[in-house]
Amino acid sequence: MYRIISVATLATMISVFPLGEANASNTQWVDPFIGTGGDGHTFPGAVVPFGMVQLSPDTDNPMRGVSPQPEIYKRCAGYHYDDTTIVGFSHTHFSGTGHSDLGDLLIMPISGEVKTNPGTAKDPDSGYRSRFSHDQEWAEAGYYGVELQDYNIKAELTASPRVGMHQYTFKNGGEGHVLFDLTSAIYNFENKVIWSDIRKINDTTLLAYRATNGWARNRQMYFAIEFSQPIDNYRFINEDDKRYRCMGCLGKEKHSTIENKAVKMSAGKAIKFVASFDNVENKPLQVKVALSAVSRSNALENLQAEIPHWDFNKVREAANSEWASYLDKVDVAGTRSEKRQFYTALYHALQAPSLYQDVNGQYRGVDGEIHDGKGFEHYTLYSLWDTYRALHPLLTYIDPDRVSGMIQSMLVHYQQSYEKMLPIWSFHAHETWTMIGYHAVSVIADAYLKGIRDYDLDLAVEAIINTANNPVYDAIPEYKQFGYVPMDVLPESVSITLEYAYDDFAIARMFEAMGKSEQAKQYFARAMSYKNVFDPQSGFMRGRDSQGRWDPEFNPFKAKYMGPFTEGNAMQYSFYVPQDVAGLITLMGGDEAFTQRLDDLFDTPLSHDMIKEHEDIAGLIGNYAHGNEPSHHIAYLYNYAGKPWKTQQRIRQIMDTLSSDKPDGLAGNDDVGQMSAWYIFSAMGFYPVAPGDLAYAIGAPQTPKVTLKLANGKQFTTTAVGLSDANKYIQSVTLNGKALERSYLTHNDIMSGGELRYVMGDKPNKNWGRAFKARPPALSEYQ
């Protein structure tokens, strides 16, 4: 962060944060605090690209029935910038989700009296939490540091893919303690911990385990913990029966007999452990924690393989270098703020899907069994309703090889699942069945059409067909029978119909490219199902029942929980036909009528009463909700009506009012990188409205120059000549020196390398991109 600080604080920062902007890498522009305020739901802690460990501070663990729902929602990532106390540091976190879970193995260093309950933010002295200040808090890619004011301890964190490393400097000297709280979790509702145990293996090593019921049911995690110096005293605490159990004191001769007889483990649903160290003033105490979803022995193997030494700065530098290897794939010119926003967005976009596999190749499958990766890296955390839109298309350019591993992970999920489904919203070997659609097919189709095919293609086809025709999932039989999902069969019926229709388009495109023409024809026909929920009388997408009757309670502004729409209203979802915008324009009365409808969406105020049941609907410009995914493609739809200058106007409006490089700089939760991916594409000046059609609608570049270093060795550069606050409109475009009259790019344009050059001005060029042949493709072109 950048704020006024004292000389003393600056001296501390120099000692703990030496990499900073002196580093020539693009990591210098990353600010992990962006998105930790407002409803961004990101965390500031240590993580490497796609890492299994996300080691970060937790500022509160609200409990169901104690904290109001908005407070729980506010802290989905465990940390919120508005908070003033830290409960401890846990090793797993979601980045930018709208739901809470994880927070595995909370650790808190303590000096002085040891309290074993966290206390409350209103009364920090009642527990082990500590006050902190943002003036004494630092973060960079792969590192986090903070002064715990109540204990006078400097806590620093870094990570490798499977191991988190802590470094605690006890400035008061004397005796220091480290508390392990296996009861703590993000969204820590009552009875979340099913079972846990912790055992002392030797003077420096602990092994732990816990299983939790949260968003994921019976989720299991194992931990190997190692200290940089021997434990002098310790105690197990079992709060199942509210009794402290001192199991012995190492290093004390008078207790040696007790220690020799002591049990070295404790197990239950409310287990904590305190390790104490007599002399902590000479050098920092370090702790390494490795994760495994398979076994304690695998966790120990992960620890020994990834961080066998005690050089904290070496791990920190390796994490920073790993980030540099990714962030340096993109070079951005622009203001300090623009660079900070762009590279932090890229940093957030490259955290998931995350590794979910041990160094020996083993992982826990969605069937609960232990599997071998058989030559591919296994990944978890698929927030597909969000990320199919822009994050997964972005990854095809940033790391196409890793995309293959992600698709292979989806395919083994399909094989292992009882329902024989590709993932919907899955993490840590569990399917949550959250959100709608079967968007894994979009990810697979988009990758296949881009030439990413290093996985079992026959299995991919099988998985796609079985998923799209699964008789037990979200009214698919009714969708096929009626051509829409009836509202008397399933809530959110209109949104489900529209999203199924898009997914079917992606399937059709893939099958067409594979030469499966009859199957492609079938799915192209299904992709037209959107027309069956368009009410020509009202001019909106509208719920209808199995008798064909329209929703009698229809209100286009109302976003009703368990109503016809998913986290949105008819104003927004009536524009969700990314696969056939031309067809939607015809339904809405032509170019001018469609343009007016878009203008109405942005310009008509939306009353809070209409959306109060959905806290995800945020970042409003009229009825446009940038903080939630159903709106993300809408600003680009003017291109399809021959008015790309209006897209340029709206993109600048969104960027200027809903994005910044401050902690509250995200308009809504980042949704595992989707919001960030939207920013990255939009800053370059184009966006994948319908992944799978291999076209990108051109918007308005937000930075003077961006260069993508592609995996094929070529570079693709966007240059915005004359870009300024006033010059937000495209006057002309050239691609490799030749005039580009169409208002879209293709995947081949990007992969061929070269330069896309925009000339910007302060007045719109209303002729550029106006012609029908200049508009982005629509479904009819593939039939």
UniProtKB/TrEMBL annotation:
Ranges for domain Glycosyl hydrolase family = 298-762
Presence of keyword Hydrolase: yes
Q: What is its EC number?
A: 3.2.1.-
Span of the secretion signal? Answer: 1-24
Query: What are the Glycosyl hydrolase family 92 N-terminal domain coordinates in residue numbering?
Result: 29-292
Q: Name one Pfam family in it.
A: Glyco_hydro_92
* Keywords on record: Glycosidase, Hydrolase, Signal
Q: Which GO terms describe its molecular function?
A: hydrolase activity, acting on glycosyl bonds
Please name the Gene3D superfamilies in this protein's record: 2.70.98.10, alpha-1,2-mannosidase, alpha-1,2-mannosidases domains, GH92 mannosidase domain
Which domain of life does this protein belong to? Bacteria
Q: Which residues form a coiled coil?
A: none
PANTHER family found in the cross-reference section: PEPTIDE N-GLYCANASE PNGASE -RELATED, SECRETED PROTEIN
Q: Please report the name of this protein according to its UniProt entry.
A: GH92 family glycosyl hydrolase
The lineage, from the top, is: Bacteria, Pseudomonadati, Pseudomonadota, Gammaproteobacteria, Alteromonadales
